[in-house]
Amino acid sequence: MRKPFIAGNWKMNTDINSAVELAKALAEKSVDALIDNKITVAVCPPSVYLSSVAAALSSSSVGLGAQNVYFEAKGAFTGEVSVSMLKDVGCTYTLIGHSERRHIFGETNEMVNKKVHAAISGGLLPVLCVGELLEEREASKTEEVIKTQIVKGLEGIDAAKMQAITIAYEPVWAIGTGLTASPQQAQEVHAFIRSLLVDLYDTNLAEEIRIQYGGSAKASNAAELLSKKDVDGLLVGGASLKADDFMGIIEAAL
Ligand code: PGA
To answer: What's the CA-to-centroid distance between 75 and ligand 1, angstroms?
Structure first.
């Protein structure tokens, strides 16, 4: 059985006070009772607030993740943050290859792959994000795009390392647009991703890997998305910025 994994991606939102308040609200809203080892929950605040959010979450089992990481260990990489730095401030997870990183900041599959390797070697659990653009879906290229992102993103990752990874399927046309993929559309791509994992690894491992859906997920559509066989969790942007909304999603996953 794959344990549902609900993660909040705060993106470049909140300020120090609202970030801490949001984290405290999640810690206090008896999320722990809800989590009770039946579900994994994490939040990914802006990197400058990671330490403060870590402190606010310290007595809760809500995990902490970064939104991005650099693959080099240290040195002259102005503006970047390393795996060990994220570990220092209490991160367990890091998103890698979010579509905004790929499409706004030009991250390539090769960079994504280096980040996946660096994260796992340094002890962070990557959430590898993949997803097609609207024009790619309309040109029936969804599977081709996803396959390239998965195969290249996981190049050189052996079965043991693969255990550390969560995959997030986030169709770019559904992110922040209010357009959610239908549960059926999500299921089709999730099943396709799992079939790729069977080819790359084996059936047993493919069955263990959690695949989150992301793209305008909210409390009102969470249960239906999560009811699909291969949808194992949600990566939530906008609806993770209010404690009640995010709690509603967590409850839908229980
Ligand atoms: P959204 O973002 O829920 O606001 O669509 C999801 C994401 O980008 O992770």
So the answer is: 32
The pTM (predicted TM-score) of the whole model is 0.97
Structurally, the chain folds into a number of domains equal to 1
DSSP3 helix / strand / coil % (the chain, rounded to 5): 50, 15, 35
Query: Could you tell me the residue range of the domain that residue 61 belongs to?
Result: 5-252
The whole-angstrom separation of Cα 173 and Cα 154 is: 24
Give residue 170 CA to ligand 1 midpoint distance, Å.
Answer: 8
Mutate to test the pocket of ligand 1, among 12, 44, 235, 242 (most ligand atoms within 8 A of CB): 235
Task: Tell me the per-residue pLDDT of 50-73, one tens digit each, with 9 for 90 and over.
Answer: 999 999 999 899 999 999 999 999
216 lines ligand 1 (CB under 6 A): yes
Q: Does residue 28 carry a catalytic annotation?
A: no
CATH number at residue 242: 3.20.20.70
Taking only the tens place, the pLDDT of each residue in 217-249 is 999 999 999 999 999 999 999 999 999 999 999
